[in-house]
Amino acid sequence: AFSDDRYTPTTASPDAMHRWIRRPLAAAALGGVTLHQYDTWVGDRVVNRNLRAVWAAIQTTYDYKFCINAEDPTSLTRVHERVAKRWFDVCATNGGLYIKLGQSCQQLNHVLPQEYTTLFSQMFDSAPPVPNEDILRVFRQDFGGETPP
User: Fold this and answer.
1) SS3 144
2) Is 141 helix (H, G, I), strand (E, B) or coil?
3) Which residues of 90-108 are buried (b: 16+ CB within 10 A; e: fewer)?
4) Helix (H, G, I), strand (E, B) or coil at 15
5) Is the pLDDT confidence value at 61 over 90?
6) Nearest to 96 by CA among 141, 56, 52
7) Which residues contact 147 (CB under 8 A, 6 or more apart)?
8) What per-residue confidence (pLDDT) applies to 21?
């Protein structure tokens, strides 16, 4: 028989277990904040744009799955309006190619509900202007330093 307590199983104290949970969570949170800040200030906001679009897709799925009431004929219209506004905001905030996608949505009036096409028609007028210097810089990069005639 062993008289040594080294071989007796013990239960960990709640503080010790919380430490093993808190450390990875704190490291993940710090990593997430660091990635967000890097992407915001140094990168091209690729992560932020993608997360914004993924979150909007999750909310859209939820809206169409759970927020449409068969007894209320106006619920579908309200969901269409809410989702169209959400995607309009995502496209306007993300800018660039997302604005082009929003402009394309306006032209899909034979596929998309009227709530979408009506709202996305504003995307043509509200596209942010790009300075001529930026356009020339990209043009020079793409065409080996040559400027347009």
Assistant:
1) coil
2) helix
3) bbbebeeebbebbeebbee
4) helix
5) yes
6) 52
7) 136, 139, 140
8) 82
Q: Rounded CA gap, 77 and 113, in Å?
A: 9
For residue 119, give the nearest of 89, 98, 75, 88 by alpha carbon: 88
Q: What is the pLDDT of residues 5-46, one digit of tens each?
A: 565 556 666 676 677 788 888 899 999 888 888 877 887 788
Q: What is the DSSP string of 76-109?
A: HHHHHHHHHHHHHHHHHHH-THHHHHHHHHHT-T
pLDDT at 80 over 90: yes
As given in the structure block, the two tokens for residue 137 are 């810089």
The DSSP string of 17-79 is HHHHHHHHHHHHHHHHHHHHHHHHHTS-SHHHHHHHHHHHHHHHHHHHHHS--TT-TTHHHHH
The C-alpha torsion from 39 through 42 and 43 to 47, rounded to 10°, is 0
Cβ within 8 Å of residue 22, ≥6 positions away = none
Closest among 56, 49, 57, 80 to 67, alpha carbons compared: 80
Q: Which amino acid is at 100?
A: K
Question: Tokens at residue 90, please?
Answer: 């995502």
